[in-house]
Each structure stands twice: as structure tokens, then as C-alpha cells.
Please model this.
Amino acid sequence: MQPKHLELTQVGIDFPTPKGPFNALTDVNLKIKKGEFISLIGHSGCGKSTVLNIVAGLHQATTGGVILDGAEVKEPGPERAVVFQNHSLLPWLSVYKNVELAVKQTQKTKSKQEVRDWVTHNLELVHMTHALDKLPSEISGGMKQRVGIARALAMEPKVLLMDEPFGALDALTRAHLQDSLMEIHADLGNTVIMITHDVDEAVLLSDRIVMMTNGPSATIGEILDVELERPRDRLSLADNPQYNHYRHEVLTFLYEKQKKIETVSSHKGKTASVKKNNAA
Amino acid sequence: MNNSAQVVRYTGKLQGKSMISSMLNSGPKLIMPFIGILLFLGIWSGVAKSIDTSLGQFPGPTQVFEQALTLIDEHNQQREKADDFYSRQEERNAARVAKDPTYVPKIRPYTGAPTFFDQIWTSLYTVMVGFFIASIIAVPVGILCGLSRSAYAAMNPLIQIFKPVSPLAWLPLVTMVVSAVYISEDPMFSKSFITSAFTVSLCCLWPTLINTAVGVSNIDSDLVNVSKVLRLKPLSHVQKIVLPASIPMIFTGLRLSLGIGWMVLIAAEMLAQNPGLGKFVWDEFQNGSSESLSRIMVAVITIGIIGFLLDRLMLTIQRYVSWDKNAVLR
Model:
């Protein structure tokens, strides 16, 4: 494990608004080891997505910066593949073609046969080889998200960025996909940063849970190391005292230390503007 | 000129087919349009009887139908005359070649007056060429405006100012420019054709351009992000993401453009005396016989039906091109 794989240093971002710049994030410092699974958790509007987008290169940090394997992140690229919340498969391409586009674009030296093998291999990882020729509109939400993950994995990313990948799915499908993701992570050992709202998901999947304070000027509040043995099994963990302790820690942070105060009117205005900025 | 007759025959078949299938599928859906048309015909013939013009009584449906048949007869007669002319010419040429083997036969075109169907064909051809020229300009420019805010800011004032300009204001300018610029010994196209086609183009540009720009700028930002993460080059970004995503809006624009183009063309032909359906209408008006109004009415209905069929044609192409086969198109 390299000590410096992915490093966020003093990352902050201002969004321009009609009333002047709005400081959404400030002083975000985080060092991530290769192969680590990191969850970002926090109340909505606290800038989790913004952190992820800065790492992806889709947003530019106003202060500080991100360094991946010694190179500064300036623009989006396939070595930092993103799994978007609502899958964002191209609706006019079949499941196979969606993944194929990513492979052809990122690995141009591959021969036709190698491309075919690699596409099929990645779809096998997410158990989607039965629907190669289906259009995204013809498969379920969970399946779409699987294909989205396959597409991201097929880019051979150094870091896999997931923006609430399972947020829009029902609980059963979500559990199923979490298990798949753990398997894949165990196999490939990618570095993963995942945004989640789900405390159980964070504890089950992560090596570290990064808890963020509320905006504006959000930053990292606490970092919790999850030292549970892998492979983890959701059923046996349910009664595990250590697991429940971690859950409790995260819940305490979210609902006591960073409890959202919605009754104060001045605060309300601020949260509203945070939401606006996130939408933009 | 056989083509025009073929087009007419083919569209006739198409309508017949869809009528039968919809009759089988849904009774009321078919009956209501029929009732609508019958009501219209009834009111028309009732009102027509009470309108007296200097060219006689306003034609009712019966007279118009009779004139439609007359126009078909006239067309067939002209065809026969033309065929006779060409076979006579061929015989003459063959005789001369037999006498003198070095003689290169000249073939002179038949110069009879264009019939109603010739005019339909001319108009269709002109509108298609004008529409095509407009589309190959408007779609790329629209994509550029949709992709780049600065391109849009630069184009927007021009679009807003030229969009509402009537084709008839353009027409004198286009005519003068074409006669000044398009000079050749053996012109491939007649000047009148080029004038009409360009006037159509100038009016067809805007709806396609605006709709394409709006469609492109409204592409789901997630899809744009996918393209960024994959580092797609600008050209493949347009090809793989932008075009498929904005096909519905592009086609909305194209259909509006073609509809406007068809309307514009008829007006331009009337004003400039360029060959086509507009000239037919104008000539009949100037002719002022007792049948003129019925013949103009035939032209009016024909223009309407052709406009409708052009729109259906675009819809069919859209169905074929669009990836979303389940989308409801109307």
C-alpha cells in the first residue's frame, strides 16, 4: 500500500451567486490509501457531492487541490470513473454498447476480440450478461445501476467514485448490490469513494467513514475507522457489538453533533441556498 | 414527368392502406373524421351557392371535383402529345441517320405548357431542395449554439431579427442577387428555381436552428458528465451524445421548417411568377374563366394535402432515426 495515493489538501470551493460568492466547502483534508473503501456521509446539502465532483474533476476547487499518484487533478478522466446516482446510461445504446463505448474510448490499443472479452468480463462481474442487447429502458433500476458500475469498472479506474449509487433502489435490491460491490472490491482492490445517506451501508462497506459537517463552509467533522474483518456478512454483523458501536458513532455524529436546526429562520435561509447551489 | 404521376399513385395507395387498418382497429376514430369532413362539405356547398362573384358562383364541392378530373385529363392529354412529339422526333432522326451516318441527332425537348401535375412536381422538388439547404446549415449551427454559450450569444440577435422576416421581403433581394451572381452558359438549374429554393431556405433556417440549439443545450447534464469522464473528443461527443439526445428536438424543428417552407414557396411562386403551384394559382386567377375558381380550389386542397403528407413523411423519418421507438410522436 502506497502511503500517498489520493490526497485532498485544503480543498475549498466558492460558488458564485447574485449575492456574492457562496463558500460551500472549506479546508477538506483527506489522505486515501490505495485500495481503501471510503464513505462520505452527512446531511443533504453538506457538500458531499461537491467533494466527489472535485475529485472527479467535474468541479474545480477554489482553494487547495487534489493529487492522484503524484499528478494534480485538473479535468475529468477515466482513471477516476464515476458511477452516477441515476445510472446515466446512454438510453440509445444497448447494455453491451454502453460498456463498449467506455472500453473503446479508454483502451484504444485493444483488438476487437480483446474489447469484446473485456466488456463481457465486466458485465459478468455485475451479473448482467443475460441482458447484453437490452436497452436501458428495458431493464430494472437495479440492473441499470449494475451496468453503470460495470461501465465504470471497465475503464480500469484507479479510483471509483460513486455518488449515492444505490440511493434510488429498493432495500432488497440495494442489499444485493452492496454484496456485489463488496465482492468486486475484494477481487479488484480499487480505491473507492462512495457517497451515502445510509448508515448501515457506510458501516458495512467502508474501511473509513468520513463524516461531514453541515454547510455552508462544510468540512470533515470526524473520520471513523471501521476495523471489521473482511469478508463481511450482513447477517452475522447484525448482532456484532463492534458493528453496532460503529453505527452508533455515526448516528451520534449525524443526529446529535450535527443536528440540523430547522427552526431558526436565519438558518433556514442558509440551508435553502446550499440546496440551490447543489442543484446548480 | 412520370414521377409526379407515380407520387400521386403511391400516396393514394398509402392513404387507402391506413384507412383500412384504422377502420378495423377503431370504429369511432374513423367515423368522427368522416362526420367532420361531411359537415364541412355540407356547409361549403350551402355557403357557396349564396356567393356570387364576377367569375360566377363560388364553386361547391361538386364543381371542384369535376375540375380535379379535368386537370387529370389535361395532364394525360399533354403526356400523349409529348409522347407523340418524341416518337415523331425519333423517327425523323432515325431517317436522317440512315441517310447520312455522320449526322448526330439533336433531341429537342417538348415545349408544351406545364400541367397541374408538372407544377406540383416542380413545387415539391423546389421545397425539398430549399429545405435541404436550410437543414444542412441550420443543424450544425444549432448544435454549435447549443454547445457554446458564446456562440449562442453571438448568433441570438441575428436569429431574433431575421426570424420574423416575411419571405416576400427577401424575394426581390434574392431574385436580384441570383440574376447577378448565377451566370453560366449552360445553366444546370433555371434562375427561377434557384430564387424560389433560396427564399424557402432563408425561411426554413430558423425553426430548425432554434429547436436544435434548445435541444442540445438541454441535454441531461449527467450524460454530458459521462462524456467528460470518458474524455470524448468534441466530434465524437457530438456524434455519440449530442445528436442522439437531441434528435426529438431537431425533428420538431425540421417539421416546423418544412411546413413553413411549403407555405413560403407557394407565396414566392405567386409573387415571382416562378413555376410551381403558386404560379398555377396566379395564372388561373389572371385567366378569369368561369372554371378558374374551381381550379384554384383544387390547388388549395392539393397544397393542403401535400403539406400534410410532407409532415407525415418527416414523422416517418423521425420514427426511423429516433432511438426511442416507444415515444409518442404526433
